[in-house]
């Protein structure tokens, strides 16, 4: 069989600056050692015992009880598997986090809850970073020097928001790019807003480069 320790030994200890790498390696180690059930599936829900209905016959109620016994047996097995996985996921998380950080994370019953708490330790600083990136995108102004580079720069800034679950849709980014363009592009922007089809970033770049060439030559 697979030796889980071999995978777990590849998880770098979480020291603070390496949260993303730690999280990736942690999830990978648990998946490869087939211990990640508690990370990928919610805890099984306990089935409620059947209650006899007022006018139910003995035969019907007994049949329902028999069906329930099977459901219950499956639940007990699934729950046991899930609990074992949850315990392993928690143990591996705690054993690969440096003492200083571990001390500041409250105990939790489930590995997913614990991981949320760990994550929140490392997203505080990224909130300030996110608002810096968002301000930058809203205040960006194009002042010449190649429109392709300008759009790629804005697209690159926007892509830095993705890991923080703040990814922008292409459509929204396109409107931000348009807002950053000088007055000469006004007609071009109005024309885009009036036509039904939507562009992606590639098409936006192609059309803006074409428009820039046209403006230069006119």
C-alpha Rg (nearest Å)? 28 Å
Count of beta strands? 0
How big a fraction of the residues is strand? under 5%
What is the molecular shape? elongated
Helices, by number, come to 10
Low-confidence stretches: none
Question: Sheet with the most strands?
Answer: none
Judged by helices, strands and strand pairing, the structural class is mainly alpha
* Integer average pLDDT: 90
| Oligomeric state of this protein | single chain
Helix content: 55-70%
End-to-end distance: 72 Å
Order of helices and strands: HHHHHHHHHH
Question: Can you walk me through this structure?
Answer:
This protein is mainly α. It contains ten helices and no strands. Helix 7 packs antiparallel against helix 10. The longest helix has 38 residues. The chain is elongated and about 90 Å long. The termini are far apart. The model has no long low-confidence stretch (mean pLDDT 90).
